[in-house]
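[step 3/7] fold_predict: job queued, chain A
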Amino acid sequence: MALEEKLSATQCTEDLMELKSIILSAHTNPYTYCTKEQFDETFNMALESVKDGATYGEFVKLVGRTIRVMRDSHTAINFRQSISKYKESGGLFLNFRVWSVGDELVITKDAEDRLPAGTVLERINGVNAKAIYHAISDVSVFEGASITSFTRITDALYTNMLCLNINIKSWNDLQVRRPGDSTSTTVRYPGKTAAAIEKQNKTIANKPVYEVTIDKENDLAVIRIGSFYEKSGRKYYKFLRNSFKEVKESGVQRLAIDLRNNTGGNSGRMKSLLSYVGNDSILIPSNIIAKQSEVSLLNYKRTIGGVARFYIRTFKKKSKDAQNYLRIAENPVGEQDTVFFQEPSGLNKSAHFSGERFLFINGLSGSASVNFAAAFKSEQMGTVLGEPCLGPMDGTWGNPSPAKLKHSGLALVVSTIRFNTNNNFQVSARPILPDVSIRESIDDIANDVDPCVEYIKGLKQPNQ
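[step 4/7] structure written:
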């Protein structure tokens, strides 16, 4: 559906009611961070606002604001699919990334190579860039009280969701302030189709998903895990084996695990990483609460097909955790179940790192990264640097299952699992906080300086 296509009041109303019904049938507890009264009132206000109908673009933002009442980062608009019709119709985008630094909106990477990193974005086609930012935040999400994450997710959505709030042209006027300049300049910047940008970005060198760097001079190794779901599991586990072996052979005594911008993924991959830096008794998550519904059932059929189920039944008979997960997947619709984990992450004895450990997190460290950070802090493995992450010590949601609203066709994902890190089922809205708060400055971005790494370099080395 095009962004300006009109939805009638009836269509909007029925879609909002369907949305509410999907959440109530699929979510383990939509009232974890809000009351039932707040939840109902928010939906009632949304229904009141569509008495005259809405354009598709307006409806997308309305749904974003409405479901945010739950403060669940895994229940959200499907950001890519929500603007698929705009893409298919040849809609244009700007190919740069932004990062909020205080009150400034700073460009971190420009694929067109017209704007250096550290450039402050002020206006797009005469419209205040921060005003556009606040409008885009309508579709952003956060979890509990993770306000920093709300900002970081809005940063990540900025250029993709500009189309909901401003007309992108073939050529656009950007008012910017380049690094070191005190005055603004106007730059002509091209708008391109999603297909053209995808083709262009394939030719640009991007950071690898997994990366290890060893700095013997500063007695420091950094292992960056950009995702717990991208690429194959085989490549991921091979990377861990090779990287920790390399770190051990290097003899460095300080190691940082970098989970910044890692929005999560496979819990098993997270637990494997723990085995290289934790102890042999860490049990995380402690339990899973899962609710079966039509949307979760379809998702399980997609993610745990017949071959995977055969493998678990045949080769994972002795793994109670694997059998429990299969049990969740095969629960009847309407049933909610709690399964308790019994197998610790264990210890990788051949390449375990027992030196001084650090963890880097920021507002985009979510889901499985939240659970890793919770284990790292609770077990006092080392020092956490960076920003508050996307979730609390007590756990996070998961298994976001796809759904689509009937009239608008708006694509969504809805949480169907709750991962808990304790068995007393305590829930706090407070995000995991770093031991040392470190945020990137504009100069850091302009000069490609990692402030977390620089902080560690400034500490006294173990052999000094």
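[step 5/7] annotate
The CA atoms of residues 94 and 191 lie 5 Å apart.
Residues 9-26 form the longest helix (18 residues).
exit 0
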